[in-house]
Input
Amino acid sequence: MSNDEQSLRVSQTLRLSPSPLAPSAQRVQDALHARGLSLRVKEFPASTRTAQEAANAVGCEVGQIVKSLIFKSAGGKAILVVASGANRVDEAAIAQALGEKIGKADADFVREQTGFVIGGVPPVGHLQPLTTFVDEDLAGYEVIWAAAGTPNAVFQLTAADLIGMTNGVVMRVKKP
Output
């Protein structure tokens, strides 16, 4: 599907009410604007919580969806991994790059560290800066889509936008 076709599909599926964005989605929009980016958060009536749901909503491949996953380092720090929706994350590779073990973070830890709920964690707008790793496979797409603070909000961007806004380390994160 071309970018124009994706944009048309998104505009046809978007909530067309004049109501403002949900507070968490507005935080993401504000964070994007603060970085000088003219990217626009879009809310959908249906869930975009999973990569497949998000891909269905915007009309793209699952690989174009940016999964924002929070892990907990052995030292108790939140680690953000932004991965292609088509990929499973190789936690051992992330731990090796980080230099310490990591584990899955529970919902309370994610919310405490980012200010967002699982299923809506964006790559920006967190309560504090996070060490971030970016999936190199995302660079293979002209356009990608990331969560925007709620389980039904996303925004369109490029891999270059993502790398710049997160100051993330680009690496192979896909599990072999």
